[in-house]
Amino acid sequence: MTANIEAPQYPFGAPFRLDIDPHFVKLRKDDPISRIQLPYGGEGWLVTRHADAKVVFTDQRFSRAVTIGRLDLPRIMPTPTRPASILSMDPPEHTRLRRLVAKAFTSRRVEELRPRAQEIVDRRLDEIEAAGSPADLVPEFALFLPVTVICEMLGVPARDHHRFRAFSDALLTTTAYNPEQIAAARAALDEYLIECVAQRRAQPTGDLLGALVTARDDEDKLSEVELITLSQELLVAGHETTSNEIANFVYLLLTNPKQWELLCDRPELVPGAVEELLRFVPLNTSGQLPRVATADVELGGVTIKAGESVFVNAQSANRDEDVFDDPAELNLLREHTPHLAFGHGVHHCLGSQLARMELQVAIGTLLRRFPGLRLAVPFEEVPWKVGLMVRGPKVLSVTW
Q: According to a count of CB atoms within 10 Å of the terminal CB, is the N or C end of the chain lower?
């Protein structure tokens, strides 16, 4: 490790489109586990290599639960980790909650949902085509599919998605909202879900939210707070990341027309192309949620002491020269793509198979239906979201 007189501020700068800060190349080579100054709570460690990232994700000495409610610990977001969140639990508590919903997100169950996802996309593109160009693919397409699917899985009416859209941005903020606004958004979303739970108690349903209510009331497998929090996280995570990735992927392909043409000519490449796009696109603006060492840990020649916080930048790990050939190049023919876009270990994204399916259906159908799709404005005029943990265009105006 290179000694730092003063740890640099992290994130290193405001995200710019889908670019990755070139500073990560030097860090991976010279200082792969380095000290950083976080926006809140002081200093922590930054992990930038693929192998080290996998260790942090799997070694149970790196705890998420220790971060709960800790204002004194370094963090990127203005509010500390929330109690009762599956994202903030370690095993066995994490395992208990994950088992309650895991069956809904297995590969087999997701494949059963594929025809419905295809139906949603086809109907939506019919409407977009009938309305004529230009069209804004962010609200009219990218958001529509994931919202509809997760709402149907949970049993939340899709007509209500406007009620939680603003809540999602507030819950994923880094600088766009202040703590009071975040608390208000969380309370409003909780209130909405409490209403949904009450409806299922009065009239049981067979959807995922109904199954969670049964697990709470009849089987005592989770608390009331866990029920609401888990439902909230499924609702937000079930659409926010995938909708941004649909828009990001379309933007990237349309600004690399040879790649778009390749997939138009060879649609069988779409599943593999989705994996490469997941590797290549830096969805998160600042990296994964923090973990705290519960004991001294030797990692990459550095001693991380008990009580110190560790941040993994999976986007940097996905550009690791020791794992990927020409990692800075988008190669849709890449055969081996062990990316960490969905994390790794016990906190590997629960909805990863659902996200993959939705991305395949969305991108594949756009390629087939609109091979002449193109941006309706110069690429440098596409506006981007700011102050959030995820990247994505605010508007993606296209024509055909």
A: N
| Contact present, 161 and 147 (Cβ < 8 Å) | yes
CA atoms within 13 A on the CB side of 288: 33
Q: Any alpha helices (H) in the chain, and if so which ranges? A: 23-30, 50-58, 93-102, 107-131, 137, 144-154, 161-171, 179-202, 208-217, 224-237, 240-254, 257-265, 270-280, 314-317, 352-369
Query: How many whole angstroms separate alpha carbon 338 and alpha carbon 323?
Result: 8
Mean pLDDT (whole number) for 33-39? 95
43 touches 74 (CB < 8 A): yes
DSSP state of 196: H
Q: Which two tokens stand for residue 155?
A: 């049993």
> Rounded distance, CA 320 to CA 50, Å?
6
Retrieve residue 184's tokens.
Answer: 């208000």
DSSP 289: P
C-beta of residue 188 within 8 angstroms of C-beta of residue 167:
yes
Which residue shows structure tokens 């997100």? 105
How far is the C-alpha of 117 from the C-alpha of 124, rounded, in Å? Answer: 11
Between 189 and 340, the higher pLDDT residue? 340
Residue 155 identity (one-letter amino acid) = G
What residue ranges define each of the domains in the chain, with the CATH number in brackets? 23-399 (1.10.630.10)
Per-residue pLDDT for 63 more than 90?
A: yes
What percentage of the chain has pLDDT greater than the value 90?
71
